[in-house]
Amino acid sequence: CGLWDLLQLDTFWQPRLPPSRKGTRWLNVLKTLAAYRLIDPGSEWRLHRHWFDHSAMGDLLGEDFAIAHSHTLYRCLDQLVVHKQALFSYLQERWRSLFDARFDVLLYDLTSTYFECDPPEHGKRTFGYSRDKRSDCVQVVIALIVTPEGFPLAYEVLPGNTLDKQTLTDFLAKIEAQYGKAERIWVMDRGIPTEATLALMRASDPPVHYLVGTPKGRLSKLEKSFLTKPWTMVREQVTVKLLDQDGELYVLALSAGRQDKERAMRRRRLKRLWKRLHELQRQTLSRDELLLKLGAAKKDAGRAYGLVHIQVPAPDEPVTAATFTFALNRKKLRLTRRREGRYLLRSNLTSDDPVQLWTWYIQLTEVEQAFKELKGDLSVRPIYHQLDRRIEAHIFVAFLAYCLQVTLKARLRPWRQDSPPAPSWRNSPPSRWSMSICPPPMDAP
């Protein structure tokens, strides 16, 4: 496999996965698992029952069907996770050597993956906030750090009920312990760091720099301070204002494109809500029925629901046009209009260029893209394993495949510089990526 050889993964894995006494070459089993996850992902059972026989892996590796036996695959999985930290340290050096990759800007985010199974009594599979909108299923949380180019630096599999704000402190310590102290810049979305964590980052020696999205509630407190500040254009249709306060730099960004999108969404939902309220006013309903229908309307309208002041009848009153009324909250609407398309960033990099700060924050989409590829191209779920160690090993193989994928993307980058980015590496010309994955033998015509 060309990508495997490019990263020199044999050098890393050979001393860690020696052949068994029965002659099972665990390295080749791992290559099979990684190639399967990258090329045609599915369950380990499907690899055993179907995929291996219908692929060329046996010929490429000089192996027979024995390495695809289900018990062999599972026993290989059991040997992998212990080497996770060493693997990422090794890959960091390989990417630095191959692509001059830099690891001073770190993008940090979390996602979840769910299991359609009965809730277990113990382990990491628990109920929690589901980013897949499957709150009816148990899940695990995956925390990931990548660079702006998509190179992963570390990840962790956490219990499904882990809150975002509970994770950052441990990750700061792990990265420092594994890679040493350095002036790194952590880029995160709002909700991940707490005030205590940010204070700890500012007080660190050397200071740990951060750039983080900030809830709009803080914008209310700073709005007057921003009024006298000038707008600076950072790119077409994006302008920013800077406010230096209490040793931190606040960046107020206004995106015309985002403003148009948010305004259109708000208008559409508000119009639909207004129409629905008129329909309810004409219906003959009991108070309980009205409240149920208003609850459904609130769910459909989202934040637009708060722009309407709704008066419902008292428990002992009938539902009439006089007892059930509604009116537009114009003061709140004006405030909402003024904030559409705006978002607030916060950093302790007080001397940095606002264009660079905004660019780093926008690159958070790279970690979101990594999650999309893990769930899409690499199909990290469904996960059928019942043991935590097997679940973590399954996710480990998916991340190993993602490392191969991001290496392929880095190799393809010179051919894609003059074209818009594709949503998936598979959209690149097959002649490029097929040769990178498995190049032809030297004597091929």
TrEMBL record:
Transmembrane segments: none annotated. SUPFAM superfamilies: Ribonuclease H-like. Residues 424-434 have a biased composition (Low complexity). One of its GO terms (biological process) is DNA transposition. InterPro entries: IS1634_transpos (IPR047654), RNaseH-like_sf (IPR012337), Transposase_11 (IPR002559). Pfam families: DDE_Tnp_1. GO terms for molecular function: DNA binding; transposase activity. Residues 417-445 are annotated as: Disordered. Residues 119-404 form the Transposase IS4-like domain. This is Protein containing Transposase, IS4-like domain.
